[in-house]
Amino acid sequence: MATSLPTEVEVFHRFLGEAIRDGGREMTVEESVAEFRAYQKELARFHEGLETSLDQARRGEAKPLDAEALKNEIRRELRDEGVTD
After folding, report:
1. Helices (DSSP H) in 1-85: which residue ranges?
2. What is the mean pLDDT of residues 21-31?
3. List of residues 6+ apart from 32 with CB closer than 8 A
4. Would you say the pTM of this structure is higher than 0.70?
5. Quick one: how far is CA 81 from the chain centroid?
6. How far apart are CA 49 and CA 45, in angstroms?
7. What would the pLDDT profile of 4-14 be if each residue is shown by its tens digit?
């Protein structure tokens, strides 16, 4: 079964629906389009970074995330900067 990607107008429609639900009723048409364009740029940047990460994983350059080690590293950095719990 072939599926087609949504058109830009369909994606914009969905974007507007979510913006309105989230309190964006005060936006002008111009502001809505500008927000949508900014959203598209951010999404493209995310996809680019994701593709880079997937390429690294395919080359075997990825390793499992050690969440505890990451949390400890962040805690050390915050402590070194004088930020405490």
Report:
1. 8-21, 29-58, 67-80
2. 85
3. 16, 19, 24
4. no
5. 27
6. 6
7. 999 999 999 99
